[in-house]
Write a structure and sequence with these properties.
It is a multi-pass membrane protein. With about 180 residues, this protein is mostly helical. The chain is about 85% helix and about 0% strand.
Length: about 180
């Protein structure tokens, strides 16, 4: 058994950090909704699992399709973020009891899928590079889970400080992130 070179390990750590930043950014906006701690735990674990599954699927499919799918995936991610953000803003302004897309059920999977799309593209390239893929996708899952938990808890605390209009701020953040992804 050979040890992993320090440079390769640092590269994997940096990739895990970078991939987790999407989950952190979107988690801040989602966390501004009134979310219980049990739900925060479930959301973080779901995002972590998706950050393991998506690169694994990418590794299995291979790098020859990464160029074709990356553009479509980024457009889809951007539009989903904008849609979630607009829905949060409308929900807050109309004070409805039910949300169109809350981080429960299908909404939770859409959220986890959206923030893990970039890890799919990374998985495509990992499969061809020969890098320590098991370590990489494990770290992707761990980092994204912890970053999501942290963001949701920060957003939850901010929600209590700003009141009901914190959801508008969260929606604006998500719309901004969606526009950033698109452009």
């Amino acid at each position: 058994m050979t040890s992993l070179p320090l440079g390769e390990f640092m590269s994997i750590l940096m990739m895990a950090f970078a991939l987790s930043m999407d989950a952190f950014s979107v988690g801040l906006g989602i966390g501004m909704q009134a979310i219980r701690l049990k739900r925060i735990a479930l959301i973080g674990l779901t995002v972590g699992i998706f950050h393991i599954l998506m690169p694994f699927i990418g590794i299995l499919l291979g790098s020859y399709i990464s160029v074709k799918i990356e553009g479509i995936a980024m457009i889809g991610a951007g539009l989903l973020l904008i849609g979630i953000g607009i829905q949060m803003i409308i929900h807050t302004l109309h004070q409805k009891d039910n949300q169109l897309l809350a981080p429960v059920g299908l909404g939770l999977f859409v959220f986890a899928f959206t923030v893990s799309l970039d890890s799919f593209s990374i998985g495509l390239s990992l499969g061809m590079s020969g890098i320590a893929t098991a370590l990489a996708i494990s770290l992707f899952g761990i980092f994204s889970t912890v970053f999501t938990w942290t963001a949701l808890l920060i957003g939850r605390k901010t929600h209590h400080l700003l009141g009901t209009y914190s959801e508008v701020i969260g929606g604006v953040i998500l719309c901004g992130l969606g526009l950033l992804v698109l452009f």
